[in-house]
Amino acid sequence: MEKFAVFRTPKSIFYGRNAFENVGKEAVLRGKKALIVSDKIMDNLGYVRKCQSLLESQGVASTTYLGVASEPTDRFVSESLLVFNQEECDLIISLGGGSCIDTAKAVAVLASNGGYIGDYMQARKIAEAHPIPHIAIATTAGTGSEATDVTIITNTTNDVKMMIKQPAFMPDAAIVDPLLTLSSPGQVTAATGVDALSHAIEAYLSKKSHPMTDNLALSAMKLIIGSILTAYNDGTNVDARERMSLGSLQAGMAFSNASVCLVHGMSRPIGALFHVPHGISNAMLLPAVMEFSRDACIERLGEIGRIFKPDDSNLSNIETSEIAVQSIKELCQNLKIPNLKGWGIEQQAFTSVVEKMACDAINSGSPSNNPKVPSHKELVELYHVCYDYQFDSGYSI
To answer: pLDDT tens for residues 139-178?
Structure first.
């Protein structure tokens, strides 16, 4: 290492089967009345009511905001912040996937620091006051948001996904209970699983990686690669769900401290403009971006290839880097990941905004962490490649 690195995590992480049972004991240490930020699906599954019961058992009152219905937006943040203030809460609990957790992160900061969430983008405004205590409970094995100091919120005025990163957005406690992921359908398992794999891969390839993030990223890749198809094909397999949850958590800690790269930079505009779920858009882009980046990260891609083919120890980095790319393509095929065209995005609509997407991707800052940093022109071309990308063939730029 040429210089020092910083590594941040939540103060407490509860991981494993039935970790959910600890929410009341953790809540009572932090507040008297909690706002639970969740969604209708979690409510219908009974998870919200169970959370309230666990809080009640420790004497903690609660109210709910269940309006998170898609990728998180500034409107969800404003609505949930209003409930927090009106109900005089002093604690936030997020229960759900990344959308619920990211919304709660924004509320935790705004409730004590004020302003509009977009003010905090690119550190234009720094959260100086301590945020409201936040306990993040993950119900998918994918975003890793429960262990990151990043929130992604869409500005509904200009359709830009704002990537906001500051220490204040880190939850106080994270709860990762693989039993909560058993209800995830196959498509969600695939999307969130490849999202987690993207986090691990990009953290490992990032220019900001360091030894602690490398260890977590490699461990996460091994867990996810070895379990994702089992979890997808048999959602009741608790062992596979457990490995996926741990992999997602480790990937979250890795990318929070090493940052993400080109896949995420390109993914956010697709989500903002075409409302493609974040995990799906990452999966659509991952193989093509790995091909684009390959020449600049042969050695590290080679290490990823050895995770897919651990018995081929005599192969060169060039050979195993190709295995990495081809194995990701095959995985996306097996998980039935569509390309942008297959998702239903009309080509004319796509072409009309591709220049804006390239600008928004560059402005997010993430592409600059990539081993190979694209020019605006290359980024536009790469978007076009991804539009009708075939996972069973290659390409070159």
So the answer is: 999 899 999 999 999 999 998 889 999 999 999 999 999 9
68 domain residue, yes or no: yes
Single out the residue in 148, 181, 214 at which a domain terminates.
181
Residue that has been written with the tokens 């220019």 in this structure:
207
Q: What is the pLDDT of residue 257?
A: 97
DSSP 161: E
Average pLDDT on 174-190 reads: 96
> For residues 255 and 349, is the Cβ–Cβ distance under 8 A?
no
- Paired tokens of 240: 């596979």
193: its two tokens:
């699983």
Q: How many domains are there within the chain?
A: 2
Domain assignment of residue 395, yes or no: no
Q: How far apart are the first and last CA of the chain?
A: 32
C-beta of residue 68 within 8 angstroms of C-beta of residue 103 = yes
From CA 198, how far away is CA 285, in angstroms rounded? 10
Whole-number Å distance between alpha carbons of 333 and 92: 39
> Beta-carbon neighbour count of residue 250 at 10 Å?
28
Same domain, 193 and 287: yes
What range does the domain containing 193 cover? Answer: 186-387
CATH code: domain of residue 49: 3.40.50.1970
Mind listing the pLDDT tens digit for each residue in 11-34?
Answer: 999 999 999 999 999 999 999 999
Three-state SS at 73: strand
In this prediction the pTM is 0.94
